[in-house]
């Protein structure tokens, strides 16, 4: 799945892991498994969370989702429920099995068809070598300096008892690891590989671990190795759809199609960035614009950026519009930038020096002095026939942007509003009208 040598990034830099770390060999094994499967990169999603293992997803030419510590299983489950045709692969550390233990157990209990690779180095390697749920009894870590008093979690035995379809335990040194990963991905239901490996920064020096002693530790703990469980059982996402098909009048998780009704004149990829503050309907405005683009027979992809505080700070949405299918999200340089607030300006300031004369910056009079080579279009709320509230400004600004750039008919934006939630149709249409009046 990667380009070039197995041990390099696509940008030709080496893996960032410590010398002797098992993460690299595990990623090489995953790569070989995907190549053996002849997997279509567009139909593979790698999901990761926090920790050294979270650095892994960037090596692969697939879709990826990087999220919070211990929550990778929930993201993967949601992706698989929405798109059961995808191969969804989770890369997580043993730390995540503790932090997200309930998610792990429920995914196995439901038998959701995802594949989980646990990079099990028996401690929290990225944050200082603290003990985790899998740290063996008596082991020395930064939080168990006199030896771990807890019995380690037997991941495979736990998940085997509650319904997982495929379970394997081995090490990063196993020559058949690519075959086992391939076998796990081919499994219809929930599959997990508990892969023991070396944390050479912390666990190995503190406990004098060797390849042989890893295996000895498993024997002492009576942790079986190899393929531990293969069972046929209904896969959850398939069973869910079958059950819902028996009740066609009820809602399902199937996507709601948007049929094109308009024709856009856009003849190239067009990047739009909306920069405002949390609570200002920035993401809603971008979603509305993306909906209208699809109504205009275009492809649309949206990426949102906002702080953990959610209700304060910036809110930034990046929207890509194209006649061709879009395989990634994120904008390096907008063709049109809508700046709504001081928070938005601070977050989007990095774009301004990159913008060209043919690009457009749409903003309120308060930010008229932005320094950029792009043409600045001022949006004056005083020109609108109705008061433009804080939550209306993003939609109004988007309407002005669509009208000025001509990326698709403004009627498509209005139709997208009508197809939205009934409670907001009238106010959204009024905001669109106000936006057309605000443009100087």
Provide the fold topology:
Elements: H1 23-37, E1 44-48, E2 63-66, H2 72-82, E3 87-93, H3 94-99, H4 101-110, E4 115-120, H5 155-161, E5 166-171, H6 177-186, E6 191-196, H7 203-207, H8 211-221, E7 226-230, H9 236-245, E8 270-277, H10 282-295, E9 299-305, E10 314-322, E11 336-339, H11 342-348, E12 360-363, E13 375-378, H12 393-405, H13 410-418, H14 425-438
Parallel strand pairs: 1-2, 1-3, 3-4, 4-6, 5-6, 8-11, 11-12, 12-13
Antiparallel strand pairs: 5-7, 8-10, 9-10
The helix tally amounts to 14
- Strand order in space, largest sheet: 2-1-3-4-6-5-7
Write the H/E string, N to C: HEEHEHHEHEHEHHEHEHEEEHEEHHH
Query: For the report, how would you describe the main beta sheet?
Result: 7 strands, mixed
Would you write up a description of this structure?
Helices cover 32% and strands 17% of the residues. It is of the alpha/beta class. It has two domains: 23-239, Rossmann fold (3-Layer(aba) Sandwich), CATH 3.40.50; 270-438, 3-Layer(aba) Sandwich (Pyruvate-ferredoxin Oxidoreductase, domain 3). The strands form two sheets. It has a seven-stranded mixed beta sheet with strand order 2-1-3-4-6-5-7, sandwiched between helices. α10 packs parallel to α12.
């Amino acid at each position: 799945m990667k380009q070039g040598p197995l041990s390099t990034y696509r940008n030709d830099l080496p893996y960032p892991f410590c010398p002797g770390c098992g993460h690299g060999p595990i990623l090489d094994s995953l790569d070989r498994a995907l190549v053996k499967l002849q997997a279509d990169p567009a139909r593979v999603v790698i999901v990761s969370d926090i920790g050294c293992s979270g650095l892994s997803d960037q090596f692969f030419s697939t879709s990826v989702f990087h999220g919070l510590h211990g929550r990778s299983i929930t993201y993967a489950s949601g992706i698989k429920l929405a798109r059961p045709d995808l191969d969804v692969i989770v890369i997580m550390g043993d730390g995540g099995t503790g932090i997200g233990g309930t998610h792990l157990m429920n995914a196995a209990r439901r038998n959701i068809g995802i594949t989980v690779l646990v990079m099990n180095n028996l401690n929290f390697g990225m944050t200082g070598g603290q003990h985790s749920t899998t740290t063996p009894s008596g082991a020395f870590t930064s939080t168990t300096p006199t030896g771990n008093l807890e019995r380690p979690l037997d991941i495979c035995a736990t998940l085997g008892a509650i319904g997982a379809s495929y379970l394997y335990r081995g090490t990063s040194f196993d020559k058949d690891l690519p075959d086992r990963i391939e076998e796990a991905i081919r499994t219809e239901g929930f599959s997990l590989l508990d892969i023991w490996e070396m944390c050479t920064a912390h666990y190995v020096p503190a406990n004098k671990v060797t390849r042989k002693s890893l295996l000895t530790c498993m024997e002492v703990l009576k942790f079986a190795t190899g393929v531990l469980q293969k069972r046929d059982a209904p896969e959850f996402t398939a069973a869910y759809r079958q059950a819902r098909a028996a009740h066609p009048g009820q809602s399902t998780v199937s996507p709601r199609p948007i049929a094109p009704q308009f024709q856009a004149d856009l003849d190239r990829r067009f990047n739009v960035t909306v920069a405002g503050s949390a609570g200002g309907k920035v993401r809603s405005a971008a979603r509305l614009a993306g909906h209208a683009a699809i109504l205009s027979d275009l492809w649309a992809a949206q990426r949102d950026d906002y702080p953990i505080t959610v209700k304060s700070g910036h809110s930034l949405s990046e929207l890509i519009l194209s006649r061709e299918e879009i395989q990634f999200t994120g904008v390096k340089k907008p063709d049109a930038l809508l700046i709504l607030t001081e928070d938005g300006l601070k977050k989007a300031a990095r774009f301004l020096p990159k913008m060209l004369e043919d690009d457009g910056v749409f903003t309120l009079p308060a930010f008229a002095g932005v320094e950029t080579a792009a043409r600045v279009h001022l949006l004056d709320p005083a020109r609108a026939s109705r008061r433009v509230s804080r939550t209306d400004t993003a939609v109004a600004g988007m309407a002005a942007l669509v009208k000025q750039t001509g990326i698709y008919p403004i009627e498509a934006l209005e139709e997208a509003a009508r197809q939205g939630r009934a409670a907001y149709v009238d106010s959204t249409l009024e905001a669109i009208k106000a936006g057309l009046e605000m443009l100087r």
